[in-house]
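Exercise 7.
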Amino acid sequence: MAKIPVVDLDADLELEGCRAWGILRDEGYFYLTGSKVADMGLEQLVAVAEEFFRMPFSEKMTYHISESTCHRGYYPPGEEGPAEGISDLKEGFDSGLFETRAGHDDHAVSSPDCSPPVPGFLATVACYHSAMTDIAHALSVVIARAIGMPDRFFLERSQHPPNQLRLLHYPASATPRQGVGTHKDFECFTLLASTGPGLEVERPDGTWTLVPPRQDTLVVTAGEMLEILTNGALLAARHKVGWIRDDRYSFPYFFSFDRHILVEPLDQFVGPAGIHYASVTAGDHLQARTSQVFRYLRNREQGKRDHLRQQS
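Solution. The predicted structure, written as tokens, is:
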């Protein structure tokens, strides 16, 4: 197994920023350690996730993501994934993602109408979300230094970001089957904790590496917004989840910019070959990507197109 690099939030930030650049360029991912990570409260989140996903399927479906007043809630295996191809094995509960309708609270972790009857569910999710936000803020300084920007570059652009926390359950499969197909995350970077192996990350040279969980660490992967900012100098990490032999719980937290922030290549990454990525607001980027991968959103868009055709 390849040796996986480690970034320590308790180490010298200048040194870790220099290291992070080379790691993200050459690998696209790393383990994150530090006192903040050790205190993240994963055990409590695992406990409420296990209790929720043990609920009868019919009861979980009453919290289906399409029934919420925002893009938050439960989705069964097959709800998320490409329109064509092999469906994912996982089921999940999304919290903290941006609203798909205007006029709602952008950054609330959840809302009472989509909170399952699991004791302490909402409080536990909110507490973990807060811990991940604190860690992401600390890491954002390291990443800012890595790309040659001021320490507060990310922080100033993420005052009320649509940072999403997902609770994912991968049921054990007796036969080989993908947990999640190959994809990139949409945001700046992802913080991932999980209870078992399964994650595989593609290195920039095209080889794949198994990245198992380690106690008191998070796995960090680069996302599409960071790729855009660096004009492709740093590539978003392509990753997947393979065959899950034992039940696995996974909790990715996605760090994004505020929805109105324009994401575009920074001047220092635009060379003679020019700009390789179009400018886009963070909100439009997330909306477009999310609408591509959720079946209920694709169906809504198709319904709108059918309605317009009928009226024309």
